[in-house]
Write a structure and sequence with these properties.
The chain has 2 domains: about 325 residues, ABC transporter type 1, transmembrane domain (ABC transporter transmembrane region fold), CATH 1.20.1560; about 170 residues, P-loop containing nucleotide triphosphate hydrolases (Rossmann fold, 3-Layer(aba) Sandwich), CATH 3.40.50.300. Helices cover about 65% and strands about 10% of the residues. The chain is built from 21 helices and 12 strands. The strands form 3 sheets. Strands 6-9-10-3-11-12 form a 6-stranded mixed sheet, with helices on both faces. The two termini are about 65 Å apart. The model has no long low-confidence stretch (mean pLDDT about 80). It comes from Streptococcus cuniculipharyngis. GO terms for molecular function: ABC-type oligopeptide transporter activity; ATP binding; ATP hydrolysis activity.
Length: about 575
């Protein structure tokens, strides 16, 4: 599909959003049309005054003057109302587009976010939708107004004098040639400028999120250099766009308007005695040339913004149309009652080529705890990703309570599995909202969950207790406190299956005792899968699996694995040595 065809498809799709606001749009168009009619009456009134009453102070002359200025006031009022209603349509449409983009983003799978920088997604939902807003509130209103003015003005000019109208019309093809040339030259420049703005947002987002690492490893100079390079390239393309604007838009259009004035005045000067053209008519035609050219100048002046808006809209629609969703689940299904998990020869790859899990098989019964250990990249977290249905596995079978995992609905699956990550994520809100996660839980249920995991002790010491504000990512809380809040959140949902992804990896030894006590209570009666680096935290597991390059190479209890004298034994000795050194 050509770029022009793509832009046409994007434009039609944008216009489809107008259908929800057709009456408001019709009202806005009505005011614009009335404004155009009033604008074209004003020169006629002035022409009549010049030819009939110029130099007179009669009552009719004064009435015409009052009517003349009254029409200007009416024009201002109608134009204000038209722009106001167009702005309302614009903001409503952008709200709908932003809602659609965000709603689809929330449904996308982890694979999409693995490949797409967070800053690029943020840029599409914020900056790009704002560019669309500019198109609807300003450019579209100006374009529709320009069409109305052009048609009504041209018709009025024809009724006044066909010859003068045709004389001015000689310059109209030049306008369309200029617009066509500008579109052809500016389109790739604007697209590149928009892409570079997205890169700037991505680099900025990455730098802010990782600022502690940046400063710890003294990477400020490198990141400043990289950011400056992208920023400079963005400025270069922005300057190219401005150069095209300066060449093809207002200066060129203004020159054409001056030529139209010259043609009219020259014709009038040479033929005023024989043509029957009055001074009032020439004045009216000069005004109509302004009416004819000014809207076209304004539209072409905003053409770069229109191009930017079309590119931005295309990027937003790409996000809305993105179909890299989470793995499909049954729309309805039975609830998980026991929590027994079975993996049968499960193989999984993120890219479809390199196997991360290679024929993994294990079984864990209700109330049992199993653990996975291994070096980084051995596939531990990938087992969790498969079980949580963040990714689709390529072969094998995953069963819960004897049923294929795909037969459970997503809500049933996620409600029955409690996930506690190494880095607990807290939302902006309160302690209460972070534990309850906006589920239909009573204050007592939230408090009971916090008490169960021993989080109530520190919560009660906070100035506002459960109503204590939580800033972004919970930075005002210690790592241990954030983890306890994450535990309370998990317990509050009453899951049948508990997944602990290195839940104590970042906690100090003193806090770990409290957390381990909470974990022990959480595991009671629940099927638990733990991923751990600290082998001391999983010694009581029913079975421990040692992973290496996506395969299970050892399995058994803590004592059995130590007796084997293999990989687990070496890992244990290494950690024991580090503890005693």
């Amino acid at each position: 599909m050509s770029s022009k065809s793509q832009q046409w498809q994007v434009f039609k799709r944008l216009m489809s959003y107008l259908t929800s606001y057709k009456w408001l749009t019709a009202l806005a168009l009505s005011f614009l049309l009335l404004t155009t009619v009033v604008k074209n009456i004003i020169p006629l009134v002035a022409s009549h005054f010049i030819d009939r009453f110029l130099g007179q102070l009669s009552q009719p002359a004064l009435l015409i003057l009052l009517g003349y200025y009254g029409l200007y006031l009416l024009q201002t009022l109608l134009q204000y109302l038209g722009n106001l209603f167009f702005a309302r349509v614009s903001f409503s449409i952008v709200r709908d587009i932003r809602r659609d983009a965000f709603a689809n983003m929330e449904k996308l799978g982890m694979s999409y976010f693995d490949q797409t920088p967070a800053g690029a997604v943020v840029s599409r939902i914020t900056n790009d939708t704002e560019a669309i807003s500019e198109m609807f509130s300003g450019i579209l209103a100006n374009f529709v107004s320009a069409v109305f003015i052009f048609l009504v003005t041209f018709y009025t000019m024809l009724t006044l004098n066909v010859g003068l109208t045709l004389l001015v019309s000689l310059l109209l093809p030049c306008i369309f040639i200029l617009v066509s040339l500008y579109r052809k030259k500016s389109e790739p420049v604007i697209a590149k400028t928009r892409s570079l703005l997205s890169d700037i947002n991505s680099k900025l987002s990455e730098s802010i999120e990782g600022i502690s690492i940046v400063q710890a490893f003294r990477q400020e100079a490198r990141l400043i250099k990289e950011f400056s390079a992208i920023n400079e390239e963005h400025v270069r393309y922005a300057n190219r766009s401005m150069a095209l604007d300066s060449l093809f838009l207002r200066p060129a259009m203004s020159l054409l308007k001056l030529l139209a004035y010259a043609l009219l005045l020259t014709y009038f000067g040479l033929n005023w005695q024989t043509s029957g053209i009055t001074a009032g008519m020439i004045y009216a035609f000069i005004q109509y040339v302004n009416r004819l050219f000014d809207p076209l100048i304004e539209v072409t002046q905003n053409f770069s913004t229109l191009q930017t808006s079309m590119v931005a809209a295309g990027r937003v629609f790409d996000l809305i149309d993105e179909s890299a969703y989470e793995p499909k689940q049954a729309s309805t299904g039975q609830a998980i009652t026991e929590g027994k998990i079975v993996f049968k020869d499960v193989s999984f790859s993120y890219d479809g080529n390199n196997k991360i899990l290679d024929k993994i098989s294990f079984e864990v019964n209700k109330g049992e705890t199993i653990a996975f250990v291994g070096s980084t990249g051995s596939g531990k977290s990938s087992i969790i990703n498969v079980l949580m249905r963040f990714y689709e596995f390529q072969s094998g079978q995953v069963l819960i309570d004897g049923q294929d995992i795909r037969t459970y609905s997503q809500s049933s699956l996620r409600q029955s599995i409690g996930l506690v990550l190494q880095e607990p994520f807290l939302y902006h809100g309160t302690v209460k909202s972070n534990i309850g996660m906006y589920q239909e839980l009573t204050d007592q249920e939230i408090k009971s969950a916090a008490e169960f995991v021993d989080a109530d002790q520190f919560i009660q010491k906070l100035p506002l207790a459960y109503d204590e504000p939580v800033t972004e990512r919970g930075t005002t809380f210690s790592t241990g406190q954030r983890q306890l809040l994450a535990f309370a959140r998990t317990v509050a949902s009453q899951p049948k299956i508990l997944i602990l992804d290195e839940a104590t990896a970042n906690i100090d030894s003193e806090t770990e005792q409290i957390v381990q006590h909470s974990l022990h209570k959480m595991r009671e009666g629940r099927t638990t899968i733990a991923i751990a680096h600290r082998l001391s935290t999983i010694q009581d597991a029913n079975c421990i699996y040692v992973l290496h390059k996506g395969k299970i190479i050892e399995s058994g209890s803590h004592e059995e694995l130590l007796a084997l004298g293999g990989t687990y034994h070496r890992m244990y000795q290494l950690q024991a040595g580090m503890m005693t050194s």
